[in-house]
Design goal:
The complex is a heterodimer of chains A (161) and B (300). Chain A has 161 residues and is of the alpha+beta class. Helix content of chain A is 28%, strand content 39%. Chain A has three helices and nine strands. Chain B has twelve helices and ten strands. The chains are: A alpha+beta (161), B alpha+beta (300). The interface between A and B is large, with 36 and 44 residues.
């Protein structure tokens, strides 16, 4: 099971949010505050810092995107959908993959039922769309190298399902 | 000079006499403190890995194969070998973990996070943690015995034996069975075979048994990339397994220890492992399917 911890974090500027994955381009925009509730896996730590690569209306993570937790040396990602700052569904990538078809009100991830393949398909579809959305989000901010990386991620998700 | 007749350890053949011999030598090497009971559980597998780390083996795999360097070194141990220091958290330790366990930085997919995380290195060091051990990465290096004597049935063979997917003929043979760690909807005799497999796993590797989950069973669909070849999931004759809710993605060049440990049990019962496909570009470590001979034995 995964449990959820709410944090207030900064949405890092796109140019800085990606570590070694893309060059910094242009001036560094000001960071804005964005609230998100991040899944935490029971058997793993959730490394800092946390960055939401997606829209943040009303100060809360919203829609399709990627929540990056940690740095390149220790990276966990939630690739999926958020609503009002809370995770809705997606993939957890901590080196291996975990799926969450939904989250309980308490924030515990619900696994797809192996006897219902459409549930796993839905999770992977959400994750693929989230990767593509993140790619577009980054491209709109001028970070084309990282945008390409997330497009590749989307292709990888499609091949893996 | 003692003789090892078959592989011992993670995913090994694990014949009792061989296991006992290896346990004795591991004890002499100072890396094994468990009972010399001729049963290969997690303690023995971890001890093999510790021994392999002690001589800086390039890719420790928790397995002793006959004629392997590990076997040669085990026989030659003159005194208890040093137990390697626990891998601590931190970037340098993480790099060493990656270098030894994975052969260097590995990105099987664009989206895979860096697998050599400090959290994982710490897990490896926690030898008492069954979850950490069984969900740990393993390099895709199956022993020679994997899938030996087994044939992977092709789509046309499945149609001849069981009928065309999605038809009443196929669906009539499906049922839901509690196979042990989970319930599964699939081909009834295949599920009965799986029940027998898991009963054995429960006895011999109980802490692994508790972590086995079903990722996918019956699913009438084509093989990825094909529009003519049906997947064996289409007849309910295949299962994709998770360990502790963790997936190993299709086409990965790595596996998980928990999956590796299950392979000999499935092979013995006539099931084919997807991590041993001849086409290595289609590695599928989660995937287990009824072999052709097993399917024929169902008499359907």
């Amino acid at each position: 099971m995964t449990v959820v911890r709410t944090i207030a974090m900064l949405v890092a500027p796109a140019a800085l949010a990606l570590g070694t994955m893309g060059p910094a381009i242009g001036a560094t925009p000001k960071a804005v505050s964005c609230q998100a509730t991040a899944p935490i896996m029971q058997h793993f730590s959730t490394p800092r810092p946390w960055r939401w690569l997606g829209d943040c209306p009303n100060g809360r993570a919203e829609g399709l995107g990627v929540l990056r937790m940690g740095s390149e040396d220790e990276l966990t990602m939630f690739i999926g959908r958020m609503h009002a700052g809370r995770p809705v569904a997606g993939l957890l990538d901590h080196g291996l993959l975990m799926m969450a078809k939904a989250f309980t009100p308490a924030g515990v991830a619900i696994q797809p039922d192996g006897n219902h393949p459409e549930e796993k398909t839905a999770v992977f579809t959400t994750a693929r769309r989230a990767a593509l959305a993140t790619s577009r989000w980054l491209a709109a901010r001028g970070n084309h190298a990282s945008a390409a990386w997330y497009r590749d991620m989307a292709d990888g998700i499609r091949e893996t399902e | 000079m003692p003789i090892l007749t078959a592989s011992v350890g993670l995913g090994g053949k694990n014949r009792g006499v061989d296991v006992g011999l290896v346990q004795m030598l591991l004890t002499q090497a100072g890396v094994y403190k468990g009972p010399e009971n001729m049963k290969c559980g997690r303690d023995t597998m971890q001890a093999i890995e510790r021994f392999q780390h002690s001589f800086s083996m390039a890719h420790p795999n928790g397995r002793v194969d006959p004629h392997s360097e590990t076997w040669t070194r085990l026989q030659a141990v003159p005194a208890p070998a040093k137990v390697p220091a626990r891998v601590a958290s931190g970037t340098m330790a993480v790099d060493r973990y990656a270098a030894t366990m994975l052969g260097g930085p590995m990105r099987a997919f664009p989206f895979m996070a860096n697998q050599a995380t400090a959290a994982m290195a710490a897990k490896f060091a926690e030898e008492g943690d069954a979850y950490a051990y069984w969900t740990g990465f393993s390099r895709m290096s199956p022993p020679p015995e994997v899938n030996q004597g087994l044939a992977c049935p092709r789509s046309h063979q499945m149609i001849e034996l069981l009928g065309v997917p999605k038809t009443k003929e196929v669906v009539a043979r499906l049922s839901t069975v509690a196979v042990g760690p989970f319930r599964m909807y699939g081909l009834t005799p295949a599920l009965n075979s799986m029940s027998t497999i898991f009963a054995k796993v429960r006895t011999e590797l109980p802490d692994l048994y508790e972590l086995i989950r079903l990722d996918g069973g019956y699913n009438p669909r084509y093989i990825r990339g094909s529009t003519t070849e049906w997947s064996n999931h289409s007849w309910g004759a295949a299962a994709d397994l998770k360990i502790g809710d963790n997936l190993v993605p299709f086409k990965s060049q790595f596996s998980m220890r928990g999956l590796d440990a299950l392979v000999p049990y499935f092979n013995e019962a006539g099931w084919y492992w997807g991590g041993g496909y001849h086409n290595q570009s289609r590695n599928d470590a989660m995937h287990f399917e009824c072999g052709l001979a097993l399917l024929q034995s169902f008499g359907l």
